[in-house]
Specification:
Blueprint: E1 8-11, H1 18-28, E2 34-38, H2 39-45, H3 50-54, E3 59-66, H4 70-81, E4 87-91, H5 96-107, E5 114-118, H6 126-132, H7 139-153, E6 157-159, H8 165-168, E7 177-180, H9 199-204, E8 209-212, H10 214-217, H11 222-236
Parallel strand pairs: 1-2, 1-8, 2-3, 3-4, 4-5, 5-6, 6-7, 7-8
Length: about 240
């Protein structure tokens, strides 16, 4: 049975030294099952930073959002598979050929990660989608379209806003991961996220993994903040 902590992926952003990262992982690992390292930390510290998560015995979520021609993305996925990560991200807007190339490359790996297709960033709202990106569809319809293409391409899951869960989750096959960023406990600041939800609401509406960042990393007591979210999920599941 899935441990409650395995529903929580802690985003290790905005931390500029490995000592602080190691301390944060140590403080929170009782309540967190997955640690997400993105462009900032991977660029700053290099692949060696992943060892901090391995030493805690937790899963690694490498969030680099590959987006390029299919051959280049396939080679990047091959290289990332060599790091023995559990999840990695690509952009679904790279197209179905690119997604298929990523999925096929991951399937060859000895330690096969789940390839997650990022649909629409949580910083993009309806106005930005229509006026800046030139997409005329409502956000939830566009996200559903991208999610269906991710399924067709053979990915292991998607990343989508909690605001899109009700539109997307019913159309996603069983066992397909739905990873939801922009998670904020009730009363927390939303910061630069424009489409957010509470952990309980997201789980009840189909999310299988919740990405939480500043509500934990910015808390006075990160271990307690992580524990509080874990306890709220235990009541919701």
């Amino acid at each position: 049975m899935k441990n409650t902590r395995d529903y929580i992926a802690l985003a290790l952003d905005n931390i500029d030294d490995t000592g602080a990262l190691e301390a944060l992982i140590r403080e929170t690992s009782d309540s967190v099952g997955v640690y997400k390292l993105g462009l900032e930390q991977f660029t700053r510290f290099g692949p060696g930073v992943l060892d901090l998560v391995r030493s805690a015995g937790r899963k690694i979520f490498l969030d680099l959002k590959f987006h390029d021609i299919p051959n280049t993305v396939a080679k990047a996925v091959r290289a990332a598979c060599g790091l023995n990560v559990d999840y990695m991200t690509i952009h679904t807007q790279g197209g179905i050929d690119m997604m298929k190339a990523a999925a096929e490359e991951a399937a060859k790996a000895a330690h096969r990660p789940k390839i997650l297709g990022v649909t629409l960033l949580t910083s993009i709202n309806q106005s930005a989608l229509n006026c800046e990106l030139g997409v005329s569809m409502p956000t939830n319809e566009y996200v559903l379209h991208l999610a269906q293409k991710a399924v067709e391409a053979g990915l292991g899951g998607i990343v989508c806003s909690a605001a899109d869960l009700e539109a997307v989750a019913p159309s996603i096959p069983a066992g397909f991961e739905i990873v939801t960023p922009g998670i904020r406990p009730a009363g927390a600041d939303v910061n630069d996220q424009k489409r957010v939800a509470t952990p309980e609401w997201a789980i009840k509406n189909g999310a299988t993994l919740l990405v939480v960042g500043r509500p934990i990393t910015g808390a006075e007591n990160p271990g307690k903040a992580a524990e509080d979210i874990k306890n709220s999920l235990e009541r919701a599941i």
